[in-house]
């Protein structure tokens, strides 16, 4: 199991300190949630903050664009040296085109589904993706309660992946903690995003190890 702690839950007054322990932790990637106040009802951080984080972080960056017209910012994400560039299925129309744009910029393409979007929506594009992120809460805010229906969606996505011959990783974001992580692992998830369960823990790296070992 891979874990991608979400910067959204970090102490923004002490980002350099946060990155110091993070770089020594067992985390695999760093998840960056970009919110615009339009696609989701919240605003998080922009590229000046992410540029600073990118200089400090020694783990691959997993960038999640919760914004309208995400393609406008693909070049900026690439400049960060991001591993994954992830946009919402619901925020785009020409998905194949955007996936190719991400590849052309040297990144791995990923798509996110909101809780109300069925897995079947990906049937035509799943083989073109390197990862699918299933939101297990409604996007926009950290610390929300896990939506149990997500477990069924993970199983459905595992089946669709096999059916289409896709190799896309399955990532989950929202309400991931020591309780939900084993359930997601059993259902077939490959990557777990955890925010407050990691950054708000008394021992963040112990929390990472617990979730990874679920």
How would you describe the overall organization of this protein?
33% of the residues lie in helices and 18% in strands. The mean pLDDT is 95. The chain is built from eight helices and eight strands; from the N terminus they run βαβαβαβαββαβαβαα. It is α/β, with parallel strands linked by helices and 214 residues long. The protein is globular and about 45 Å long. It has an eight-stranded parallel β-sheet with strand order 1-8-7-6-5-4-3-2.
Short note summarizing the structure:
The chain has 214 residues and is an alpha/beta fold. It has helices at 15-23, 47-56, 74-79, 95-104, 150-164, 180-187, 196-199, 204-212, and strands at 2-3, 30-35, 61-66, 84-88, 108-113, 131-135, 169-173, 191-193. It is 33% helix and 18% strand.
Helical content band: 25-40%
Chain-averaged pLDDT: 95
How many DSSP-defined strands?
8
Strand content: 15-25%
The stretches of 5 or more residues where confidence is low (pLDDT under 50) are: none
Distance between the termini: 8 Å
Backbone CA Rg: 16 Å
- Morphology: globular
Largest sheet: 8 strands, parallel
Strand order within the widest beta sheet: 1-8-7-6-5-4-3-2
Order of helices and strands: EHEHEHEHEEHEHEHH
Number of helices: 8
What oligomeric arrangement do these chains adopt?
single chain
Structural category is alpha/beta
